[in-house]
Amino acid sequence: MTPGRSSARSARATLIKLSIFTTVMALILAGLVMVFSEFRTGDTERYNAVFADVSGLESGDKVRIAGVEVGRVHRIGLEDGNIAAVQFSVAGNQIVHQSTEAMVRYENLTGDRYMELKRGEGDQSALDPGGTLPISQTSPALDLDALLGGFRPLFRALDPGQVNQLSESIVKVFQGEAGTVQDLLASTASLTQTLADRDQLIGDVIANLNGVLTTVSDNQENVDSIVDDLQQLVSGLAANSEPIGESVSRLNDASANMTTLLADVRPALKEDIAQLDRVATLINEDEPFVENVMNRLPSDFEKMSRLGVYGSFFQFYLCGVIVQLTNPATGRSVYLPQYEQTTGRCSFPDE
């Protein structure tokens, strides 16, 4: 095989691969366009409708019957200078009657609209393609601003999620799509149940706040004085910010030293606490004796104070001598007074 022939075959293979790739990508692109543009195949018929107001409705918006998409809005314009003329298409297998009613609906709370067709009362014969539904058989979009504006005080008490839920329910009810006014009121009652449950709490808070404000008003001078003192305190702290900052920085060292101290004394402290139980038990068992000692302490301290009455020293004077003899066998003691003086400096105040 010659080099020229091999090169031609390679170029042909590359061209075939490129053609296949291009064809596949074109088919994928066409599919994406059909999906995102919601392209519909089949025969369609075009009709017209006259509205007093089609605010928010745009060319390309959906046309629905009983909630099912059956066509699209194609053109919107003015007729006679003050009414809106809408041209729309409907699938060929759907019949638009002479009495059909057309309404502009809210699709969601972001403002998207669609046109709904609904069978009306009266002539049920088919409307010829290109025919027009008069203004008497059309309804403009609900004035959402005017509707929701009346619920503004309620919305202030709800969180955003509850506002969206309630707004959607209101729009659906007044558009006649779903639910009843009773359902709407039930939803509103459910959303405001939290406030109702806290009615007593809110009332108490308001009453207490009124009392606080009354007290503050009655003590205006004291409140002014407190505010002035607080201002002076803050000014003083600001003027001594550096020493305070140093003290705070040294708290870490103090905490470390305290930790070391507690670690050192912890064993001894633990032992003292353990022995304290024994001491408390002994004191409790000899309660009469302890009570007698505690009762005598004031008078005994008063007697002891006489020892230093003549100066910053203790002087002693013999007021009595008592000899105590104890029998080793029985443990009994005998007291033998040898000398005793109860007058003069040896007398006690309570004698």
Topology:
Layout: H1 3-36, E1 44-51, E2 62-65, E3 68-79, E4 83-91, E5 101-106, E6 113-118, E7 132-133, E8 138-139, H2 144-149, H3 152-156, H4 160-175, H5 181-191, H6 193-197, H7 199-218, H8 220-239, H9 241-285, H10 287-305, E9 320-326, E10 333-340
Parallel strand pairs: 1-7, 2-6, 5-8
Antiparallel strand pairs: 1-4, 2-3, 3-4, 5-6, 9-10
Tell me what you see in this structure.
The chain is of the alpha/beta class. Among the domains are: 40-141; 289-346, no CATH class. It has ten helices and ten strands. It has helices spanning 3-36, 144-149, 152-156, 160-175, 181-191, 193-197, 199-218, 220-239, 241-285, 287-305, and strands spanning 44-51, 62-65, 68-79, 83-91, 101-106, 113-118, 132-133, 138-139, 320-326, 333-340. The strands form two sheets. Strands 7-1-4-3-2-6-5-8 form an eight-stranded mixed β-sheet, with helices on one face. It has a two-stranded antiparallel ribbon with strand order 9-10. A hairpin with a 3-residue loop joins strand 3 (68-79) and strand 4. Helix 4 (160-175) runs antiparallel to helix 5 (181-191).
Strand content: 15-25%
- Helical proportion, percent range: 40-55%
Main beta sheet: strand number and arrangement? 8 strands, mixed
State the shape.
elongated
Low-pLDDT stretches are: none
User: Helix and strand string, N-terminal first?
Assistant: HEEEEEEEEHHHHHHHHHEE
Strand order of the largest sheet: 7-1-4-3-2-6-5-8
What count of helical segments does DSSP give?
10
Radius of gyration: 52 Å
What is the number of strand segments?
A: 10
First-last Cα distance? 150 Å
Write down the overall mean pLDDT. 78
Q: Name the structural class.
A: alpha/beta
